[in-house]
Design brief:
By secondary structure, the protein is mainly α. The protein is built from 18 helices and no strands. Helix content is 70%, strand content 0%. This is Helix-turn-helix transcriptional regulator.
Length: 352
């Protein structure tokens, strides 16, 4: 939007006529008319007063913004996609380049244009030389976005560059790029698995992936434990029971440590202050904690090293439960219970 269009837009928003603007600034009404038509521009000395009169600032009036809004980028993305899908690939690239020249520091614009035109170029059926030209331009925009300061744009741009390096079998460079991405921000697991498979062998890649599956399964187990507690506290007792069943069933399904199957119903029994159920599931959990985790029996972790026996886990359980029952209000209903003390004594002897 040029300055004439801006003047017209903000004049109307302020409820002013061209004559009123002219009167306030000491110019003629035809002069204001010419500004809005773009046939002339206001004198530089009038710009501060004009901006104040129109309730805006010089940066907005003169389009000095370095960034587009997300909405503006979204609208441009829609227009760019339409242009590319019409088959005018060169026109779409020119359209993006022109907008980027206007807003060279807009990271979101750079990333959006590169992403859209990457897909457009792939589907275009362009010749090898032309495709290389498109790729150079796309990677230039991605590199600029990856060097930017906006984290939410920079990380996806780095990820896209890594995938492009993998397509070109530049695995070392791809791995360097993926290492720049913090864990949890993007799913790096599958690209890293592919890199390991190509650079080493399938066994190395499978070993790596098995470790990530184990991490994901134990993390999911913790999430389910917490979710069932929250549902119980929210009064959704049936839902909490269903989640407890899911958490219990995932232990054999994902080859997790057997004692974990007793935890969900133990948590519910504690929340419900059900002494008998609590003691029953506590006894079961500590009994299972004595058993070794035979991790290699699961096809999911057959390459992973064996886990230690349950002795350390059992000791940890006893210490943690003793501390909690002595200090936390939620365990008041268990405090002084003779059966509980007997369970602690029994397993304390077994784990020594």
């Amino acid at each position: 939007m040029d300055i004439g269009e801006k003047i017209r837009k903000y004049r109307k928003a302020a409820g002013l006529t061209q004559e009123q603007v002219a009167g306030y600034l000491g110019v003629s009404a035809p002069a204001v008319h010419k500004w809005e038509k773009g046939s002339s521009c206001p004198d530089i000395s009038l710009l501060p007063a004009l901006a104040r009169l129109l309730h805006t600032d010089l940066n907005e009036l003169l389009s000095f913004r370095e960034e587009l809004t997300e909405w503006e980028v979204g609208e441009f993305a829609r227009e760019l996609s339409e242009k590319g899908m019409e088959g005018d690939v060169d026109g779409a690239f020119s359209m993006a380049a022109e907008k980027i020249r206007e807003y060279p520091c807009c990271d979101l614009l750079l990333y959006t244009a590169a992403t859209i035109l990457g897909n457009v170029a792939t589907l275009s059926g362009a010749g090898e030389e032309k495709q290389r030209e498109y790729d150079r331009q796309i990677e230039d925009w991605l590199n600029r976005a990856a060097a930017g300061s906006q984290e939410k744009v920079r990380i996806p741009a780095v990820y896209m560059l890594a995938l492009r390096c993998m397509q070109k079998e530049e695995y070392e460079k791809a791995e360097e790029l993926l290492d720049k991405i913090p864990d949890g921000d993007m799913d790096k697991v599958l690209p890293l698995t592919t890199i390991l498979c190509r650079r080493e062998d399938a066994d190395a890649a499978a070993y790596f992936l098995q470790g990530r599956i184990l991490q994901a399964a134990t993390r999911m187990q913790s999430y389910l434990y917490r979710l069932l507690e929250l549902e119980e506290q929210a009064g959704n007792h049936r839902r909490a029971d269903e989640i407890a069943e899911i958490a219990e069933n995932m232990v054999p399904l994902f080859g997790l440590w057997p004692y974990g199957a007793a935890v969900p119903k133990l948590l519910l029994a504690i929340d419900r202050k059900d002494t008998e159920e609590c003691l029953r599931h506590l006894d079961k959990a500590l009994s299972e904690a004595q058993k070794p985790w035979e991790i290699k029996k699961s096809p999911l972790y057959c390459r992973r090293p064996e886990k230690p026996s349950g002795q350390d886990v059992g000791k940890h359980w006893i210490r943690a439960l003793l501390s909690e029952t002595e200090s936390c209000e939620e365990y008041d209903f268990l405090r002084g219970n003779e059966k509980l003390e007997q369970i602690f004594r029994t397993y304390a002897e077994k784990f020594t």
